[in-house]
């Protein structure tokens, strides 16, 4: 009987939110417990909606720093490194789906860490998961403040715009389920891609980027290979890692799918589209702008195009911030109410705990966004310190955990052991060296220009 229940748990949960099912196996989930008409249906994301959520968790803040990373690395090394990161993270993302089907009780990366490393692993990865998404939420708020500054021509104090971003992020992130968020994910995805395409087309048809000299003949100074020092180069690589580090969100997405067996289909769509967009945006914008590319990249084609592109991208930035506040909030919420009827019932306790979680994440992210108001430096630091840790090492360990004791140690098994070890080692190298490079770059930036003051009113939309 226990084996039968495990098999039944693979069955997709019907899409009607709140429906009570005669077969209780359809209404029971290993993570969320009983799904009834008394509360939200946490298993209500189809494979198309899952693809949208995956793409939105990837195509968000990281894409805006890709042309700048290419400026540091050079266009050829930049493309090669981007494709390598795409390949490794696609495998890592695939392992999440495989691990989820084998271990149905897994909701987040902390559950995987608990299985592999015990209580210490669960606590460590749970803390890293929350810290990572809080930092990403902070950079999301910073991105929104840049957009609002651009649209209003610095209409008011930047600190006010960051506060507005925090309020909007809290309100949207408090939507209870990813199933209800998936339509917003589509809207946000289309909007941010449109904004980026506007800039891409504009830099291709304009005579020169807005920050370049407007006198005489201008030729792009893009470089085939870069010559930046190690600290700057590894910081650029960290920015590319951050562009693919939506990986930890895929645990939550898989957990809320109606049929997790369709996870791989959603993943392949996501990674194919994301990689194509990143390559197109990075190569075209950097080729035409060279060293005059702006950070974020939406400001590369002049004030008018910047306003148009940010006008399109703003909903996408809002949806990104919504998702990255929702994810750690949902994690904490589940840990507090796990095993309680309040988890899946719309009780007063349910709503008080849920709103307290999203509000607490929002406040911490707001403090981070205001205290480190430098977009590209913040993105690089997040990608190096936490993005790599969430996207490389755990997935190599997950394969080894499930397959190390296999009786058939074939050449394929040996190859996969070597691959998993490579993913773990490369992730560790990128994490350590990238964090060092990001810290050095931040210190150099502050020493050179004094940096941007915390809770500053200064316009943060004119970085080049």
Automatic annotation (TrEMBL):
What top-level branch of life does the organism fall under?
Answer: Eukaryota
Might you report a single GO cellular component term? membrane
Lipid bilayer topology: Multi-pass membrane protein
GO MF entries: L-amino acid transmembrane transporter activity
Pfam families assigned: Aa_trans (PF01490)
Q: Which keywords, in A-to-Z order, does the entry hold?
A: Membrane, Transmembrane, Transmembrane helix
Which InterPro entries does the entry mention? AA_transpt_TM
> Where is the protein found, in the record's own terms?
Membrane
Tell me where the transmembrane regions lie: 123-147, 153-172, 184-205, 234-255, 267-288, 308-327, 348-372, 378-401, 413-432
Q: Which residues form the Amino acid transporter transmembrane domain?
A: 45-439
Keyword Ligase assigned: no
Task: Give the PANTHER family listed for this entry.
Answer: AMINO ACID TRANSPORTER, AMINO ACID TRANSPORTER (EUROFUNG)
Family the entry assigns: Belongs to the amino acid/polyamine transporter 2 family.
This one is known as: Amino acid transporter transmembrane domain-containing protein
